[in-house]
Design a protein that fits this description.
The protein is α/β, with parallel strands linked by helices. The strands form five sheets. An eight-stranded mixed β-sheet has the order 1-12-14-13-15-18-16-17, with helices on both faces. The protein has a four-stranded antiparallel β-sheet with strand order 3-2-11-5, with no helix packed on it. Strand 13, helix 13 and strand 14 form a beta-alpha-beta unit. Helix 7 packs antiparallel against helix 20, helix 22 packs parallel to helix 25 and helix 23 packs antiparallel against helix 25. One of its GO terms (cellular component) is membrane.
């Protein structure tokens, strides 16, 4: 039992009635005075020499003023504890005392009584202190969870809806720069510190003065991309939608194209088959926009667009003429009937056998330099201010569709900031720094996030621990879809289950590591940062082709409010994302799972006909190292009783860099460099191996496949070496301390 040593004249109000008794205090004072007087008598020096362990009796007044609890297991034994535990202690004293002194017995009795009184007082003080103070055994995780819930309970769907409507109205009266300034002002008013506007001058490919057109050569009929006949009336009716139905960074010009031409083609008509769309989505007559830009400013590939940088004037990123068109126009070009259902099943759009169609494409776009703006705000951490949790979304992008989903994203991130700052104003702060980012230029290839990432690359490589995406939180209303890095899937699964009100009726957890089309791209593919994104989707969309997310349809405010009239889905996304943000920003040990990465690698090699024995052997060794790392380092670090701050910092540094080993140098166009992410949620194999295998089947050489196998092999080996080196470092540190 832990207790406290006190002098009898030192009261501890509120702890015990015994310490407030005047008679007991007077007796103790008298005994102590007599004891000190006797200690001054000749002959007592011999006791001090023979019993060196009691040398602090001379300084009992100063020593006994310490009211801190004593832990017998770790602290030196107090003198009163020794009187209890060592039976020969008093005997040793009596043997050392001069026999000629007639008052030896009295002195011993006084000392013993004083010791007993103070010992009992210490027990009482310790008991009441332990009773009135919070127990050290209380789980910090329980306290943190309560804190997170206190923060998140202030988030309400109605408030998000009001913010959304205000942003939509703001767009109608302000331009892109003014919107960014208004968002900065709002974030600052909420209490967020150090909010910045970061501008970059970048090369944008914009629509021309007139919309693109497609003409059927056989009849001479001219159509706009939405399928409407070319006319001045149709152009005025939906001028913006027609202008922004284009492929950014496509080649310009006029081209005659055969729909049956197999090789040497110079143009592409992009469309989305209605059979691939959700039943709730009627987009047959809708046009859309795509960007052919893989990411960042095309004029500064691989480096930031800052003043003085060399600029490449690239008016197009492909020699092909590319034009998105509606499904209704495709049906007209290939002369298909309007009703294409067979026994209730949807029939895909296909050109009849042995038939040919020749069309003329006309595309006009303009390339010029424009300014894109990022809004970046910081909430500094108190324990690890140099470690960043980035929360990213996008604001309105000028020169693109009048889409309203940016207002949805901005309202969600602002709602979380508001809830967080209410707690910060009461004195709380996260352990790690949270960085809130609204990116500009997203529609043209995630330009704002790429330029900021390239600008601060060295800092971000070292400091970013996770990226939480709030991009387009509500795209449907039938299914919660979670995308997470393998190391974060366990955490995401826990949050999904915790936030399900009826555990017995919870839907199957839909979590995957699949490619996503948003501003997380740079952080996943160039920095290897673990990432999480929650969205509501339509089930049919999830089952459809992955390229659907690349098509930017004009989505108006009324459509978003139809999907989520009370903004309850927005509220759920905000709270789910918020809890993940808080846990990553505040837990002493990052909530990443090393073993899940190794298991994901093994699962990606199962059933793959390209897998080699070397790959399987390396994957097995990776799992062994990850298991050892998980048990020997992760388990002790998560136990507060065994936690060592130096080792925790080393451990977190290892955890945040685990995915960097899986960044390959060369990936096929459209594929992630981070091979832990699959092309879509329907495949579990490494996407670059599947693509190389398909490519190999059509060629005589298997060189492409061998290169892909080498990339995967080197990635797995690098990860295994990384874990092994980490274990060796921890072992050497432990040996050094011992």
């Amino acid at each position: 039992m832990a207790y406290q040593k006190v002098n009898a004249d030192q009261r501890a109000p509120g702890h015990s009635q015994y310490l407030d008794n005047d008679d007991l205090q007077a007796t103790a004072l008298d005994l102590e005075w007599d004891m000190e007087k006797e200690l001054e008598e000749p002959g007592f020096d011999q006791f001090q020499l023979n019993s060196a362990e009691n040398q602090n009796l001379e300084n009992s007044e100063t020593a006994d003023l310490n009211l801190d609890p004593i832990q017998p297991a770790t602290s030196p034994k107090g003198r009163f504890q020794r009187l209890q535990e060592e039976s020969d202690y008093v005997t040793h004293y009596t043997r050392s005392a001069p026999k000629s002194n007639p008052c030896n017995f009295c002195r011993l009795l006084k000392i013993f009584c004083t010791a007993i009184i103070l010992f009992i007082s210490g027990i009482l003080i310790g008991y009441y202190s332990h009773k009135n103070c919070p127990s050290n055994a209380t789980s910090s995780g329980t306290l943190d969870l309560h804190l997170y819930q206190e923060i998140l309970k202030t988030i309400q769907g109605e408030d998000i809806k009001k913010s959304f409507r205000n942003l939509v109205q703001l767009y109608k009266s302000e331009d892109d720069m003014e919107i960014s300034k208004k968002i900065k002002t709002q974030w600052t008013s909420l209490g967020l510190e150090d909010v910045q506007l970061v501008n970059y001058s970048v090369l944008l490919n914009l629509p021309g003065l007139s919309p693109s057109s497609v003409t059927l050569s056989s009849s001479g009929q001219c159509f706009h991309p939405n399928g409407q006949p070319c006319s001045e009336e149709a152009r005025k009716w939906s001028s913006q939608d027609l202008l922004y139905s284009y492929a950014a960074y496509s080649a310009n010009g006029i081209l005659e194209l055969s729909l049956l031409e197999k090789t040497g083609f110079g143009g592409v008509l992009l469309y989305i088959d209605p059979c691939d769309l959700p039943k709730t989505a009627n987009l047959s007559y809708n046009t859309f926009m795509v960007s052919l830009n893989p990411g960042g400013d095309p004029s500064t590939p691989g480096y930031p667009s800052i003043d003085g940088s060399f600029r490449q004037h690239r008016s197009n990123l492909t020699s092909l003429l590319v034009q998105p068109i509606s499904a209704s126009l495709v049906a007209k070009l290939i002369s298909l009937p309007k009703d294409r259902t067979t026994n209730g099943a949807c029939s895909p759009l296909e050109l009849p056998n042995n038939e040919e169609r020749i069309v003329n494409m006309k595309i006009q776009t303009v390339t010029k330099f424009e300014t894109v703006t990022n809004v970046v705000g910081y909430l500094k951490g108190v324990t690890f201010p140099d470690r960043y949790v980035i929360v990213g979304s996008h604001h309105h992008t000028a020169h693109s569709y009048n889409r309203q989903e940016w207002a949805s994203s901005t309202a969600v991130i602002t709602a979380f900031i508001r809830a967080l700052m209410l707690r910060v104003k009461r004195g709380w702060r996260p352990d790690r720094t949270i960085v809130f980012c609204l990116w500009g230029g997203t529609a043209f290839g995630n330009i704002g996030s790429y330029e900021w990432g390239e600008d601060f690359r060295k800092v971000l490589q070292r400091n970013v621990v996770a990226y939480i995406s709030l991009h387009s939180p509500v795209r449907g209303n039938s299914s919660l879809h979670s995308v997470a890095s393998p190391s974060l899937q366990q955490l995401v699964a826990e949050k999904n289950k915790f936030n399900c009100p009826r555990r017995d009726q919870c839907p199957k957890t839909n979590i995957s590591s699949e490619q996503i089309q948003d501003d997380a791209d740079y952080f996943i593919n160039h920095l290897g940062v673990p990432t999480v994104r929650f969205t509501y989707e339509d089930i049919k969309t999830l089952e459809g082709p992955s390229f659907l997310s690349e098509a930017l349809f004009p989505k108006h405010a009324t459509k978003i409010e139809e999907m989520d009239p009370f903004f309850n889905l927005h509220e759920t996304i905000t709270k789910l994302s918020g809890e993940v943000i808080l846990q990553i920003a505040n837990e002493p040990v990052l909530p990443f799972n090393a073993l899940d990465i190794a298991l994901e690698v093994q699962n990606s090699l199962k059933g793959d006909q390209t897998t080699t024995p070397q790959l399987l052997a390396l994957a097995s060794r990776l799992r062994e190292s990850a298991e050892l790392f998980q048990s020997d380092e992760m388990r002790p670090a998560n136990d507060p009783k065994e936690r060592d701050l130096t080792r925790v910092r080393m451990l977190n540094d290892l955890l945040q860099d685990m995915e960097k080993s899986f960044l390959v140098q060369h990936a096929p166009p459209g594929f992630y460099r981070n091979i832990l992410y699959h092309l879509d949620g329907k495949t579990s194999q490494f996407s670059i191996l599947l693509e190389a295998w398909e490519h190999c089947k059509s060629l005589a050489s298997n060189e492409t496949l061998q290169e892909a196998l080498s990339e995967v092999l080197n990635s797995i080996n690098a990860a295994q070496v990384y874990f092994k080196a980490g274990l060796d470092v921890f072992e050497s540190v432990l040996v050094g301390k011992n």
